[in-house]
Here is the input.
Amino acid sequence: MQFGTSSIDFSILPYQEGINPPVTKPNPGFLTDIGEEGMRDLLERFYMKLFESPIKELFPKDKEAMREAGQFSADFFIQICGGTPYFNQHRGAPQMRGRHAPFRITPTARLHWLVLFEEALQPIIDNQLSSEENIQSFWNYINVFSQWMINTKEA
Ligand code: HEM
Here is the structure.
């Protein structure tokens, strides 16, 4: 039985307009702990949550297209954690801000995105698939880097 006693800090940094704080990549240990399949499962869970979320309008309307998008995202996260550079191989240079530019990403969209990512991480915590230190470093990375993706003021 799980008691949910993890001490990982999932607080969300407040967004400050015009400031892109320095980003530290996640510990490679997060990837070695969960493996490529674990990362693909994580992004599958996350994208299926996004598909039914308050920010679903930003994403593909078709479930299969959404699943495929999740796997490009998994390619990225495997690469950023020091694994095989699948994203470069399949999609080219990441240039994440440029790739997000066509989408209206507001501070509120970022909050939804992060909360759903936290939910998608829960099975990794519950099943102790990675150390708290490595999960924390992964969270810290998306917490900071997600601020860089905001490109639209609140409606
Ligand atoms: C701030 C909240 C964010 C929102 C609302 C958001 C939204 C989106 C949307 C609408 C797309 C296009 C559909 C798709 O291909 O998935 C996308 C693509 C992607 N996003 Fe985000 N994103 C956010 C933050 C991030 C962050 C922080 C990262 C990386 C750390 C990231 C990584 C990616 C990747 C790798 C893709 C796929 C790009 C491609 O294959 O060309 N996103 N995102």
Q: What stands out?
A: Helices lie at 28-51, 63-80, 86-91, 96-100, 107-126, 132-149. The pocket of protoporphyrin IX containing FE is lined by residues 55, 58-59, 69, 72-73, 76, 91, 96, 99-100, 103, 105, 109-110, 113, 142, 145-146, 149 (CB under 6 Å). The chain has one domain: 28-149.
